[in-house]
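Chain A, query sequence.
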Amino acid sequence: MKQTRQDFFTANGEGIKIMTFTEFARHILRMECGESLELYAVVNRQTRECSRPLSVRKEQWNGTPFYLLGGHGQEVRTINFAGRPKEEFETTCHDVLDSYDAVESIGAVVSRLRELSPEELHKRIAEEMKTGCKYLLVYRSEEEMTAALDGKIYAISDTDGKFLCDLYQPDYLHLENGGRYCGHRIHSGHAFPFRLGNRQPHGTRQGALLPDGDYIYPRNGNAMIEIGNRIETPEGVFYELEYGGEGNIYKNEDAFLNRPDEVCYVPEYAAEDREDWRVSESSDGCFTHNSLLALCKGNEEVCQDLFYSLEWTYPTTLLEEWDSNGYFDEIEGWYDSND
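Chain A, predicted structure.
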């Protein structure tokens, strides 16, 4: 099963991905027989505390697959899904997780940190230096990195307001004082600091590189994000998902920027039941600029942040995560209505 990106690391180095009960059900459907997943029934995103550990394992008996959930001193329960519709399987998972006192979501252990030896650390640093990056900052933990970079990552847009890439504070200050950026003079209204833990810095998503010199080039020149394929058939238009770093998705920046009613994003779960990873244009899992904008209550800035942040999940899931992290607290009028 493909690697899933964690939301945070615990103090003991476990990478935790918070999943709703429905996301958990869909996630374990992709497990192979004999595969196991560790999880916590109780998880707190703010404090990063996890409790009530459980394990889920996919087994098979006489050709019939099933799941075992429990362990760690908890009662083991069986989840059957052979011959059941997807909705019934998701309801069963919901009921079983609820019996372990889980509330709406669980924390799945999707990765583990391990301490590098001095030799391994030196090798990793040398490998990163070969990429030609201007800054290589090494931190002992995510908390240390967040504290050190808080307010020091600047998102840069061109004179039309289109996001280009990020700058580390020293480079931003240099360019603001007379430097040039991709042939465009920087205007104060087109650059602003991002708070780590509030608005995620674009650079972690776009992989922007800061070479030496006064000119900073975004991505591959002016190349647009294009993951997956749009396929026209006699039966209609289909979107073929491809691996985008975190999961299989369809993502088209040109459609997002220039064709607001054309599908620009399809999350992985929209194609979970399709072996060919193709999704019909009429599917509820297809999103256009305008449909994303509606989810963002008409706020274009939030809509752009949302599109560039989407890596594999549903837009509503990411918006809920941002809400719990305080992303919308500083956005005027966001909570004025319940629309």
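Residues 178-222 have pLDDT under 50 and may be disordered. The first helix runs from residue 21 to 29.
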